[in-house]
Design brief:
globular, DNA polymerase, domain 1, Alpha-Beta Plaits, four-stranded antiparallel β-sheet, MutS, DNA mismatch repair protein, domain I, alpha+beta, 4 domains
Length: 392
């Protein structure tokens, strides 16, 4: 059985945990709402009631929620809390697949002798996270990752949904069309235009017929998802060999500035983990999923370790622009450092050009920010509004 664990409104929840005066109020984490170039990273459930969501411009969020509390991103603090939570997951299974800073899959196969039935393990894990970190998680338990992912979002926040083996198809077909995870607003609109108003209606159509309307990738996805099958191929990250982060966005991303901001945040997650976990890698992999469910990937192996944020972000942007079909909406982005090793490249570069000093600076900042009760240092370029502007 697979457990999908999702930290509820993670960035905003950390802010409400650290600053009790924000609890119960609409907290919006991201950039300056007075700058039209700033975007929302995440927001509390109180803010979501007003229609605010991630990847929305901060200016639009302010229009929807004028009394919202806008806070700057404190990525080092979020990583600190994420690390606490992931360490708890490691106590329940040797197979934890961290998908991003705020979600993970946990394979509970073979853990019954230690912790009992998987459903009891899920409840115990939720209680441990709350007790030891002050944060809540929503979890879904199912025989495959896709259904577990959908189940974890059924009763957020602080929810738990268990789909028993054999009940995957009925579970999916009992849900409204909007719960079809991975299908964005445009796809939902196309489904309704094609006469589909429920997941059960999709399941009543053959895969071939769906492919004729939605393309090969889209048709196969819809068929598998509506039957409770493994509709999504999640990164098969092995803890000792690769470190990755990916995110599915609530709306298709088309603006280059917002896309670069999303890539920046993924790079920052991956770079922080490679540094704090002591890994080195020369291979960068980028994953792109478009609004029509088609997925593509591209990677590059460099002569030396990709061991600074600047190096990683530049590499990812180059990979992205070499692969992106401009104008196509993007539903998911993923960044991965592959073939990780605990041993750094000893050859080094013939000419340094100051990169060694940059590496030392980043390590110092990460080491400092990992300490408790100290003012956090944030590189200006890591803030969404600090990215280079694109042409109007």
């Amino acid at each position: 059985m697979f457990l999908h664990v999702d930290l509820d409104a993670f960035f905003a929840s950390v802010e409400q945990l650290d600053f009790p005066q924000y609890r119960g109020k609409p907290v919006i984490v991201g950039g300056d709402p007075d700058s039209r170039r700033s975007i929302v990273s995440t927001c509390s459930y109180e803010a979501r009631k007003f229609g605010v969501h991630s990847a929305m411009s901060a200016a639009q969020a302010k229009l929807l929620c004028p009394d919202g509390i806008f806070l700057r991103v404190r990525m080092s603090r979020y990583h600190e809390k994420s690390k606490e939570v992931m360490s708890i997951f490691d106590e329940f299974s040797p197979d934890v697949q961290q998908m991003s800073i705020d979600e993970a899959f946990i394979d509970l196969t073979g853990t019954e002798r230690l912790f009992g039935p998987p459903e009891k393990t899920a409840v115990r894990l939720k209680d441990e996270v709350k007790k030891r970190t002050g944060l809540t998680v929503s979890v879904g338990l199912a025989s495959n990752k896709y259904v577990a992912k959908v189940a974890s979002g059924i009763s957020k926040p602080d929810g738990f949904c268990y789909v028993k083996s054999g009940g995957e198809a009925e579970f999916m077909q009992s849900l409204p069309l909007e719960k079809l995870w991975g299908a964005g607003p445009k796809t939902l609109s196309r489904l309704r235009d094609s006469g589909f108003f429920s997941i059960r209606e999709i399941a009543n159509v053959s895969e071939e017929a769906l492919q004729k309307v939605f393309g090969n990738s889209g048709g196969t996805f819809l068929f598998n998802a509506s039957h409770g099958l493994a509709a999504e191929t999640f990164n098969t990250e092995t803890k000792n060999h690769s470190i990755s982060a990916e995110h599915t966005y609530p709306y298709d991303l088309t603006d280059p500035y917002i896309i670069e901001t999303a890539l920046m945040q993924l790079c920052e997650e991956v770079r922080y983990r490679t540094e704090t976990e002591g890994f080195y890698s020369k291979t960068v992999h980028l994953k792109i999923r478009y609004g029509d469910f088609s997925t593509t990937g591209i990677q590059k192996t460099f002569q030396s370790d990709v061991d600074t944020f600047d190096f990683l972000f530049k590499a990812v942007k180059e990979l992205f622009y070499s692969k992106w079909h401009q104008g196509y909406g993007i539903r998911l982005l993923g960044v991965c450092m592959q073939n990780c090793s605990k041993t750094p490249d000893t050859q080094g570069e013939l000419f340094d050009f100051g990169s060694d000093n940059l590496r030392k600076l980043e390590k110092t900042i990460i080491s400092h920010n990992s300490k408790k009760n100290v003012p956090k240092i944030q590189k200006a370029r890591l803030l969404p509004q600090a990215l280079p502007k694109t042409d109007e």
